[in-house]
Amino acid sequence: MPEKLPFEFLFTPEFSRDPYAVYASLREQGPIFPIDFPPGFDAYLIIDHEHGRAALNDPRLSKDMQRFGDYFKAIATEDDILFDSNMLSVDPPDHTRLRRIVSKAFTPRRVEELRPRVQAITDELIDGFEGGAAELIDEFAFPLPIIVICELLGIPSQDRDQFREWSSLLVNPTFVPEEVERRRAAARATTAYFRRMCEERRQEPRDDLISALVAMEELTEKELISTLSLLLIAGHETTVNLIGNGVLALLRNPDQLDLLRAKPELLPNAIEEFLRYDGPVERSTPRFASEDLEIAGTRIPRGAMVHVSIGAVGRDPEVFAEPDRLDITRTDNRHVAFGHGIHFCLGAPLARLEGQIAIGTLLERLPQLALGCAEEELSRRLTGSVVRGLSRLPIRF
Ligand code: HEM
């Protein structure tokens, strides 16, 4: 079995710049590694397609945070209810129940109805670019999904920036002591905010998702708040990076950019390729072995954490021809960027809609789109977190 990968491994600049090269060098040693992440926990990382995809839907790997939640206890507060009572943190039958309730209020038809509004927000943001240059993350990739999810939920626009800060702290656990404290404060603030919001909607319902979920009266208060937090965080921390990483991939591969401009009908296919090639979620959320088990010959003791590197799975040469090449015409693209199995991303139709409109409109309206800084000046968001993306992406046009 390969040696244990140290905690720091996921935080090195080398890994952050190109995790795919690091995974390629590890591949020969095996599809699964013991890993010290988070420090002090018995954890494993899977990097191949066969075992990674299977693990994402293995009923022996539990998502039950309350049963195996020492990890979250280490980063949240005792009374913090953000993480342990939503669909991504429970197993069936609770998972089935919670997912069904939210799906009712979040149907593909409802998502399709958002198309004109997503287009209008996209156009407004591009109208705001000035002087032939923009910082694409702050001025475009971040505001678009956050405006959409806040409007869907019914969060007032003046509260958006506050949420951006909270959500960034919540999604990127670093285990540095001061960070843990700030994260706990963000968790408390988010919980209090949603509690107040639900109360307001209970008194005075509106045409939004919070009112719809409150009115169903099928969720406990704890489940309701936990679900809203999941939707808010999952609803924008990811799509920002589909847009950012996707645009960067095109700018680095001018032949693919030209091809997409020449054949805009390839856009849906291109979005799938961006998701595979450099997707927003580097690692799955953790799963816990509910019994002693074996994966690819490695014994996993009961209680151990199992992560799947979604990024590495998407570059598995056994499944993807020339995995390191961006190819927007790729067919049979079996990436797992939205997960797999019962926890498959509920927001995938919304993310795809936003990604297509955002990138399609940028290409249409900015024919001279180009990188606005030297490659070395691009800065990435923190590594080691679940999401992978840029903190800045200057463009010229
Ligand atoms: C679950 C990725 C956008 C809501 C997931 C999972 C992944 C994922 C990988 C499964 C995690 C696991 O099994 O460990 C993405 C990506 C997105 C995106 C790459 C953007 C490109 C969204 C949006 C929403 C959303 C826009 C909602 C508004 C959810 C929910 C779950 C989920 C509710 C939990 C589903 C369950 O447990 O049954 N997402 N997501 N996601 N996502 Fe997304």
Automatic annotation (TrEMBL):
GO molecular function (one): monooxygenase activity
A family per Pfam: p450
Key word Heme present: yes
Keyword Nucleotide-binding: no
CDD domains referenced in this protein's UniProt entry, alphabetically: CYP107-like
Family statement drawn from the similarity comment of this UniProt entry: Belongs to the cytochrome P450 family.
Record protein name field: Cytochrome P450
